[in-house]
Each structure stands twice: as structure tokens, then as C-alpha cells.
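User: Fold this one for me? It's Aminoglycoside phosphotransferase (APT) family kinase protein.
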Amino acid sequence: MTHSDVVGFDPIAIERWLPTATDVTGPFTWTRLPGGHSNLTYLLTSADGRELVIRRPPQGELLPKAHDMWREYRIIDGLWPTAVPVAEPIAYVDDRELCEVHFYVMGKVDGAALYSGAEVRDWLPEAARKRAGESFIDTLAALHSIEPTDVGLAELGRPDGYVARQLKTWYGSWTASVPFAEHDDPRAHELHELFNANLPEQGPARVVHGDFGPHNCMFSPDGEVTAVLDWEIATLGDPLADFAYSINAWVEPGDAGVYGADPATALPGFPSRDDLIARYAEATGADLSDLAFYRAFNAWKTACILHGVYARYRAGQKSTEGVDLDALFARIGLSLDVSAERAAEI
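Assistant: Here's what I get for Aminoglycoside phosphotransferase (APT) family kinase protein.
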């Protein structure tokens, strides 16, 4: 990629500044990295092969709290000395002479995120998959064992009432999306009432990632998590809600297709959900007696998220090119099926 192809940064200005913040000097090769919730993210490779990652919000008008680079940076900066693997925080910059918006620079981490079975087959041999599951859940347990005050993250978010706020947010999303989706399901409303009537008492608040799954972890070929990515929606909250989200996303062979047709963890060699639940309980000492509630709630939340996405497609707010709307619609119902099944255990 030439300098003229770089969007959102002035490569000459950045390359002139970088040696003042790091011991890495240019010239650099710029490579656009995919993913990252539409944030503009580039890999910078120096002539001697050293690698850095630079990340900024997308171009255009943004919602006030969206794409907060300082929030992401302060989280990896706080977690860097802990047992939670993150990319090395190098510099956060809010200087309009360098860039039109704030940005940060971090170290490059080797590994591969596991979005689907295709990535697993290409990257992670079957013999390493047991360790991948163990490292995955050990990493989450380590995150939930950290006292936020100890890592400078006590002000990351409101610590109490996490699930109650989530219920309000996502129920609002469901009801607002009904006219555009032209679809409602009585179970969405019934489950919302059930959850509000059976809210567990939240224990001590911890940093919750919000989207902790194999797709947001980098794995080495031997199964070790080398870094957790995309801290954009992390906050303080109920660690058991965060844990249940991850357990739901840990797909087993034979599961319904809530997470697509080729889920990463349904391949041979990975530990079962029960294995991960037992390992988490042992590592954290958490009381998991309300796990059915948290799993049901997260499946319902997934249905609300998918319902909102489907509504935006139906309303013409997102391009449907290459999108299987029928499959997306089916996943809404499957998520509610899972939620209702788990809710029967409450």
C-alpha cells in the first residue's frame, strides 16, 4: 500500500512522529487490517521488520460515545501488567496537528483469531485445540479475578445493575425494531418479564469484555491466547453475564445454528462447555447456581441484536449484497429457542 492509499492518517506526519514515541524508525509499509468494528486500523512494518499497529475511529460523523480510542487504550494499558494478554500499549495521542481525531499505537501480537471453522482448520491443529479452550477460559477467569481499582479502571463504568440496564437497552432495541423488521415474537416479551422478575443479585463488579469469544482472541498455533482484542464495549459489570455470553458462544457439535453454519469450536478436539464451566468455577471460585439465568438472558440478548440487524437490512439502512436474510431471520428464532430452553431451568 502506498502512502496515497492510506485513509484517515497522514503517513508522512505519523512516520515523522513515531520515533519520538518509540524506538522504531521508518520508513514503514502500511497495511490495512480488517475488522475492528469499522475503526481504521493499520499494520506498520519498518524496514528492519518491526511491527506496530495504529488505530483510529472511522471517518465521518460519530455518535458521542462511539469509537472511544482513549477508552480502549486505557483498558489495555491497565491490563498490560496482569495475567490477561493484551497488545503492548505504546502511545495514545490527541493532537490535531498529527491527526484529525485521536488515535493510539500498540504492539503487534502474533496469532490468529478464530472466526469460523475455516480459520481453525487453517491455523489450529486438532492436538492444540484442548489447550486453546483451556487458555481461552483461563484468560476470562483472569480478567474476572482482577479488582478494577488495582489496575486504574475503577471509573470505567457504572459498577452496579449491569443486567438490569442491559435488559432495558436490548428490550428497547427489540420493540423499536419491530416495525422495520415486520416481525415480533411473544417470547421476546415473555422472557423479558421473566428476567426482570428473577434478576440475581450482582456480586462485585469486574471488567467485562462484552464480546469475549474465539473471534476476539488471538491464538498461537499451540493453542495459547496471545492477546484479547476489541475492548471497545468493555465496561464494569457482572462477570457472570460476561462468562455466560462466552459459554453460549462456545458452540458444540450438534448445536443449532445461532452462530452460523461453520462455528469455530464445533470441530473435533475442543473442550466441551461443561469442561470450561468447571474450569472457570475452579479458577474463580464463582457461585454458578444462577448460570441458567445468565445463559438464557444472553441468548435473548443475541436474539435482540440479530433482530435489530435484520430490521436495518429490511429498512434499507444496510446493503443486503451477499447477505442471506432468511438465514439471519432464522437465527433470531433459534436464539429465542435457546433462551427459552435455558429459562426453563431458572
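One thing worth pointing out: The radius of gyration is 21 Å.
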